[in-house]
Amino acid sequence: MPACLGQSFGHSLGQGMSHGKGSCAQGRGRVGEGGETRGMAQVAGGAGALKKTVALVGMMGAGKTAVGKALAARLGVPFLDSDAEIEKAADRTIAEIFTEHGEAFFRSRETEVIGRLLENHRAILSTGGGAFLSQTNREMIAEKGVAVWLKADLDLLWNRVKHKSTRPLLRTENPYETLKELVAAREPLYAQAGIVVEAEPKLSIEGMADKVVEALRARGGILEEDQ
Length: 227
Fold this sequence. Notes:
Elements: H1 9-21, E1 23-24, E2 30-32, E3 35-36, E4 53-57, H2 64-75, E5 78-81, H3 82-90, H4 94-101, H5 103-120, E6 124-126, H6 135-144, E7 145-151, H7 154-161, H8 175-190, E8 195-198, H9 205-219
Parallel strand pairs: 4-6, 4-7, 5-6, 7-8
Antiparallel strand pairs: 1-5, 2-3
Helix pairs in contact: 1-5, 2-9, 3-5, 4-5, 5-6
């Protein structure tokens, strides 16, 4: 087991991020599965465009990573992915961490990482599908940022994840039913997010990012342009 998976896992990762190893989204290029940012106009330049971190929450397949990258490019702020940071620090995929150490171990490390990222950055933060189930994580996000639930219906989620082999929770005899049960169990907790933005099957990644920006404007106190 790598040393960073031990007690100093979150600390060492937090130090690395504070020295500029985070990923900043660019105005062009791939933003995730099947989409490009195509040079969207920025609202403002630099991390000063946000007054607080925007944490994207929701089910696997909701588009948190793809939309998050497009949103970060739109606002000109860093994009951070808690799962990606865990994998980088552990030198393991999420699926491997689940297999080798169990979900409880992973969730503990996840909380450490999210806490460090919230402490050190004002950014767009994509969180894992189970992250917002933790009361500790919900409270941290509410205190230091704002949670945005990317809400997608079951059919849309299934269409996006059914061919993926990287989802450890769906490695069951009937992954569709498992996903259905996860959605039913998790949605009441996702609903506690400060902002809800509904996904649409035909909406582009850029269009979804636009919806999030409008929701942030409507909420107020999040974008630096809000005076």
